[in-house]
Amino acid sequence: MENLVDSQPAHVEQGFGASRGWWVVLGILAVWHALLTLGLFGPETQAYSGLTDERPIISGRHALHLYHGYLGARAFSANRRLSTYDPYFYAGYPKTPWFDAGGKPAELLLWLGGAQYRPAAWKLGVAATWVLLPLIVSLAAWSAGLNRAASAVSAFVVILVCWSDCGRELLWDGSIDTLLASTFGLLVLCLTLLYHRSPNILALAGVASALWATCFMQAFMFLTLLPLAVMLYFTTGWQHRTWWHLGLLAAFATALAGNWFWLSDALEFWWIRAEPTETSTPTGVLAMLEFFKRHQMLEQPMLLGLVLVIAPAAAVGIVAWHLQGKTVEARLFALACSAYALLGLSGGFWAPHLGVELNRLLFTALVFSALPAGQFFVSSFDWMGKLTGTSLRGAAVTCAILATIVIGCHVPLGRFARHLLRQDPLPLGFPDKVQQTVEALQKATTSKARLLYEETPATDTWTPLFPFVLERQSVGGLGADARIEHGVARMREGKLAGRSINEWSDTELADYCRRYNVGWVVCHTKASQDRFKKWSVSADSKTLPDGSTLFTLRRPQNFVLRGKGSLEKIEPDAITLTDLAPEEGTIVLSFHFHPGIRPSADRVRVEKEPQVHDGIPYIRLRLTEPLARLTLRWDH
Known about the structure:
Layout: H1 21-38, H2 47-52, H3 62-79, E1 84-86, E2 93-95, H4 104-112, H5 119-143, H6 148-163, H7 165-173, H8 176-197, H9 201-217, H10 219-236, H11 242-258, H12 260-268, H13 284-295, H14 302-323, H15 327-350, H16 361-388, H17 391-408, H18 410-421, H19 432-444, E3 450-455, H20 466-469, E4 474-475, E5 491-492, E6 495-496, E7 499-500, H21 506-515, E8 518-523, H22 526-534, E9 538-543, E10 549-553, E11 560-562, E12 564-571, E13 574-581, E14 586-592, E15 597-599, E16 605-609, E17 618-622, E18 627-634
Parallel strand pairs: 3-4, 3-5, 3-8
Antiparallel strand pairs: 1-2, 5-6, 6-7, 8-10, 9-10, 11-14, 12-13, 13-18, 14-17, 15-18, 16-17
Helix pairs in contact: 1-5, 1-6, 3-4, 4-5, 5-6, 5-8, 6-16, 8-9, 8-10, 8-16, 9-10, 9-11, 10-15, 13-15, 14-15, 14-16, 15-16, 16-17
C-alpha cells in the first residue's frame, strides 16, 4: 500500500499560513468557545452546577431525547438493540428508530452514563458537542489540505455560525444529531480527499469512523452524502489501483455494519410510521415565509449579514481553488454548499411530506462553506501582498479593508457581539407553575388509570418526562413528533384522534375512555374544556397552576377490559399483572399488542385482540384457569 505511515497531506501550503503558532490561535478560540458554552448553563458562579446537576433542559426536543435516550440506553444494555416496548404512553408503543430518530446521541450518552435517567449525562454531552464542533471542522480543513491558518479561520467561522440564530435554534431545539451529522459529514468528504492524495491506513480508518458517526447521528445526512461521495469517487478513483477502491468499499461496509444494530430495527418497523392526522406545520411558500420570519432576517440582519459574508467568501475561495488547479476540491464544495443551501431553502415545499425538516440543512450549508471561506480570508493576505509588492504591505492593506468593513457594519456586528457576551442560558428544570402543576396532578390522580393529556407546543418541552416526575401512564405527552400509528389517538390542540373534540358524541367519548382506561383529562384549549364540561361523566373539574383544567371522570378504572385482574407495575419492556381470572378463557388488556410480547407462564398464550375504532390490536391473554401473577415481557 502506498504511503502506509505518512498521513500528512503532501499538498498543504507552506509559509506563514503553515506556522505552528496557528495551533495556539486555534487553542485560544477553543477555550473562548468553551467558556461561552459554559455560560449556557447559568451565570458565572452557577454555570458548573447547572451543567452537572440533575435538572433537565426544558426546551424543544431535549426532554423527548432524554426520555428516549434512557429507554434506548436501557434496551442496549440488556440486548444490544435500541428498540424497546414502552407501556407508559399511548397504551404501549414500540420505541423504534422511526420515532425520535434524532435521539440516538442521547441514547449513546445515557448508555455511557450507566443506562440510567441522568439529565447531567445529556447536558454534558450537549456541552461537549457544542465545544467540539469547531475542532471537528478544523480537523476536516486540515484533512482537505488547508494550511494551519485556514484551518483555524474555518473553526472561527463555524464558531460564529454556531452562535448565530441558525445554530442557537438547533441547540435550543435539542437537534444535536444535526449539529454532529453536519460536521462529521464534512469530515467524511475531507478525509476521503486525504485518502485520495495520501492513501494510508490512518486516513482510511478515519473515513470509516466518520462515516459510522454520520450514519449513527442522522441517517438522512448519510444519504445526502452519497451523491457527493459518488462524484468524488468517479473524479478521483481512476488515478488509483484496485486496493484503493477495495479500501473505500470496506470503509463503507464497515460503517453500515457498525450501524446494523439499529438499521435492522428501522427495516423491521418501517410500517409503524404514520402521517399526523393534524398538523400546524406550514408548507410551500408559507414555510419559506415562516423561516424568514422566525429568524427576522430582514429586520434583524444578524444571520443574514453572516450569510452575506460567508457565502461570497466561500464562492471566491472555491473559484481560487479552481484557478490553483484544485479542481476536485472546487467542484466538491461548490456542489455540496449549493446543494445543502437549496435543500434547506426549498425544504418547506416538500419536506413536510417526508417528515424531514430540511431547513436544518442551512446550518449544514454554512458549515461546509466555512472551509472555502476560511481559505479565502487567509489567501487574501497573500493575494494583497502580491498586488502591493510585499507581504507586510499586503497585510496592512487587508487589515485596513477588514477594519473598513467592520466600521461600516458596526450596528449588526455590535449586536452580534452583545449577543455573544450576554448569552441567554438554556432553561434548566421545571418552571414554578409547571412544578406546581405536576404536584397537583400527583395528588389528584392515581396509577389505577391513565391521564388523557391535551398536548400543545408549550407542553411538548416537558411532558415526555411524565414517567419520572409524575409516575403515571398517559395518553399523549410525547409531543408533535409522535408520527407513529400509536400516537394518532392523542388529544392535541382541540382535536382527539384527529377529529375536533366537538365532533365526539358522549357515547364515543365513553368508549374511547373505556378502551384507554382514562380516569382524568387535562385540557388546555377552550374547545376541549367546554366539551368535557358538558359531558355528564366529568364529575369534577379543577384549574391547575399552569392554567389548564383537570377533569375527573366518573367511570370504572381498570386496565383489564375483559376478565378480572389488577395491574401491579409497569416498566420498559415489562407489564406485571396479579389476580388474573379469565372470562370464557380470555383476558383483554388495555395495552397495545406488539409482536414479541412473551408471558412468564407457559400455560398463557398472548394473542391479538382487534379493535374496531383503533387500528392497533390490544393484548389478549388466553388461559384456562386463574393465575396469581403474570409478567409480560417484550423479547426482541
